[in-house]
Design goal:
7 helices; 223 residues
């Protein structure tokens, strides 16, 4: 089956077209400046050369990942490239489409897509366990301690997912890792002066207040 997301297709097509238009506009600008130099007009900056334009345009196309659409002729004596419009059209027909192969015959198409997306979510969870939560390496030998270590990491993963869901629901651009980094800067201080204990809380920034609101947890107090 083939799944199609119209919004994703339009966004990807538009982004590719903008990149191509930007690259071709840059190439035309360099060519115009090169022609003006040949006519005796001196512009600002260092003079351009055809080998120099070729190298710079090749690097720009490579960084944009558009080498399969804009083909630069490196064997040409001057500056030359080929814009493959048919290849771009072929890629646009594939934008937003996902091919899924399954051996389950009695499952509706929308359910297959939902299960596939949940698989991606599970894989994201494994990446979080390995990176941010650092489930390994384990320096344990006894089975009970190994199970305890894994259980703590699993609980941390649940909290991480709850944070991500709440941040997303609040339209926050902050990731759970970034949120934890910002909130960890809040400190509680205790100072003993002449036998009296004085407690205080570091200043909470507006960004941290927004995170407390997005995560639906109360702001910490000095008491």
């Amino acid at each position: 089956m083939v799944a199609h997301d119209e919004e994703a297709a339009q966004a990807k097509t538009q982004a590719r077209r903008q990149q191509i238009e930007k690259l071709i506009a840059q190439a035309d600008q360099w060519c115009d400046k090169l022609e003006q130099q040949e006519d005796g007009h001196k512009g600002r900056g260092r003079p351009l050369s055809e080998p120099g334009i070729t190298a710079r345009f090749y690097q720009a196309v490579k960084e944009a990942g558009m080498g399969h659409i804009i083909d630069i002729d490196l064997r040409h004596e001057g500056f030359a490239y080929h814009y493959r419009a048919l290849r771009q059209q072929a890629l646009e027909r594939l934008d937003g489409k996902l091919l899924l192969v399954t051996n389950v015959n009695d499952c509706p198409a929308h359910e297959i897509v939902r299960r596939y997306k949940s698989l991606a979510d599970i894989e994201r969870g494994f990446r979080v366990l390995k990176s941010e939560l650092e489930i390994g390496p384990m320096y344990h030998r006894l089975p009970q301690r190994i199970r305890t270590h894994a259980t703590i990491c699993f609980i941390a993963l649940i909290l991480h997912r709850v944070m991500r869901m709440r941040l997303k629901a609040a339209n926050s651009a902050c990731s759970p890792g970034r949120a934890l980094s910002l909130l960890s800067r809040i400190q509680r201080h205790q100072v003993k002066i002449n036998g009296a204990l004085v407690e205080g809380l570091s200043t909470v920034t507006p960004e941290q207040l927004e995170l407390f609101k997005a995560l639906q947890i109360p702001k910490p107090t000095a008491q």
